[in-house]
Amino acid sequence: MVMTDPIADFLTRIRNANQANHSVVEAPASNIKKGIAEILKHEGFVKNVEVIEDDKQGIIRIFLKYGQNGEKVITGLKRISKPGLRVYTKREDVPKVLNGLGIAIISTSEGLLTDREARQKILAEKLLLTFGNIKIQSL
Question: Which residues cross the membrane (predicted)?
């Protein structure tokens, strides 16, 4: 079966595991998924990220993070730019997610960046998505 939007599948796996209070979620690996996962780790939305090599493309394992009372750290996750509807943005139009409490992930010529990094570097290209505390966007 051919997958038309592997990033949306990746985000859905994270969203579903988070809703079910799972501690770990696995998905087929790719460079863009690894980049998204590393940003989530760096920004504190997930505990850890592992890439397991296999004979094919590898598997990315994400360890989800919850608060002291079991509250979800990732409260929203939304794909903005999709294969059928690409969304591009200028630096001054990069959205602030939850007034700066969330993040937008943007695909630029320098790779994947958060909205804050893109504003600092005066770059902004394709908005991938946003997370409730995170927003992610892709080229």
Answer: none
